[in-house]
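Hey,
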Amino acid sequence: MPRTTKIKPMVDWVDITATEADWDKLGKAEAIKMHNHLHLVRAFEEMVLEMDAQGLIHGPAHSSIGQEGGAIGSISPLKPGDQVTGSHRGHHQFVAKALAYLDPGHVDPLTTDLSGDILQLLQKSLAEIMGLAQGYCKGRGGSMHLRWEEAGALGTNAIVGGGVPFATGAAWTKKRCGTDEAVFSYFGEGSAHIGSVPEAMNLAALWDLPVCFFIENNGFAVATTVEEETRETRVSSRGLAFGIPSFRVDGMDPVAVRVATERALDIMRSGKGPTVIEAVLYRFFHHGGGVPASAFGYRSKEDEATWRKRDPILVMLDGLKTRGWLDDDGDATLATRAKSAMQLAASALTVEDGNKRTVIEALWPDTAMRDAGLRGDLSELDGKRFEEQEEFSGTLAPVRYVDAVAEVMNRRMAEDDRIFCLGEDIHRLKGGTNGATKGLAEKYPDRIIPTPIAEAGFSGLAGGVAMSGKYRPVVELMYPDFALVAADQLFNQIGKARHMFGGDTAMPIVFRTKIAIGTGYGSQHSMDPAGLFAQWPGWRIVAPSTAFDYVGLMNSALACDDPVLVIEHVGLYTQKMPGPVNDYDYFIPLGKAKVVREGSAMTILTYSAMVEESRKAAEALGLDAEIIDLRSLDRAGIDWETIGESIRKTNNVVVVEQSPLTVSYGAMLTDELQRRFFDHLDQPVQRVHGGESSPSVSKVLERAAFAMAPEVEVRLKQMMIDTGRGALVGV
């Protein structure tokens, strides 16, 4: 028989229960304040359900009734600078954090009217959930996307677990700024099973980030029980795997939750890293709306009645009455005033006709603002020195493309200590796997930050940092295919954040990645990401084809307040081409294409390494083709003026891309070209692209899967034949 030794976790995992001493420490004034906030949150949620029942909530209404104890108990001890993020069921946390911000003192709520600020909070929050213009996110966020940065509410989130990495980014910012402030990320037990959450936990533990992963274990993911979700139903156990001190507490007892929170805050404020709190609680209704879950058959009425007896308002009231701090009349006063405040909020947003309410028409958002704020207006680039290679005022010399990549980052990091880089292996191997961060780790050891293999975790963390507005992350995705691992963070979170939260939230973040077609890395390392990223709102995309353009476009990307994808190409990395010698401070505008070869027979639209391949093809044929390097590829960045001028001259256009037919950038561009320039075309827009499949590892199959100059030549010849000018190219 083998000898066995029980392994002890490196951190504590404890259950916490409040005692008489904890109530004494809390004190009468703070306890009554917490109870008042419980009533306000409850009244708010009851009004949301009332509005929902009358058809005035468009979309889901995920009620938190029954779960308020976790929110009030954990938020009541927070400081104004502490921040929170939440999930789709997050009204209670949002309102609780805003109340803590607006109601910091101990004014007696029994004798003092609610302040105008609190009444406005309740109205604006309700307006947001109803999708009205005066809401905190101008009606765009609704029930599941609530954000009020001033109060420290960084945003609730409709994707299960999706907002957790952002919270680690906010905590990274706190630590970097040297404060003792903390971030609380609220999510349900179901979120503990999705990949972004353990990735975020690992990063938080690895870097000692002051973030509390607050798990509301209400026992159900819609109708699936926690026992059907996981073998270990005490989900605070997840923290032990990452060395995170973890606490389990009765979430129906606000004081017990507060005691657990104070323990967690002691750890985080002292610089010892993250914590986990699991609050065991119960939502009184079905997943959405005001119908009991028993009506759907997955809970019993007896179970619901048992939990109703443990309503956090009743638990709190019992403690207050036991100590003689509040009686039933006082409790009724708080409840009545909260309900009256919500009636007032509802009346400001609706008109009543008998028993029926309707929304005041003037409060709906203006539909003309549908896309406003999807991206910024680029005013942050006003006054920059824009230069093109042909008129460059500095000195040019042959440089390797990849050296220009590293050198422009060196220059910007030297001048702007807000910039830092994240990614796998970027600190070693003489500048990462391709040398793109060469020399930077030695110069900026605390700003070239290597990550574990966790694309969702570190992408989301960087998004949270960027949204703080204090730092500018530059994230390297080693291969663009890995963007699919981080797809939620890139597209649902980072790309949508500005617009979703009202259009005013900047997202200054740069992602670098490379096209590795032709390197033999096969189907899962050879993507051209342009087609993927161009399909999602919010992103700007640049694909420099020269070292000179790389410097100017990267400078613009680093100054931009939108998320920018910078696409590099492995085939260009080692090529020598004209680039700056000492001047790395010029810019190239985002959204400005460049005519790199003038001609009149046809227009070739392309980018990255295919610019030179297209030139080779045109020159091999002796064809008078005009080649336009698109440079900016996002929908907002396509330079229709330059493109249109060329097409009206040539009346023929071909879109050239190297990558396969699937997830194709050219498909989107061709559609736009056909609709915009139909009357100026002698033939349909033509395309050059690879096959349907991703490139294989086999050398011959890989080459057959993507386009180069020979494939461009074939298409150009055919186009000339179709226009009756084939003799010009020898056919």
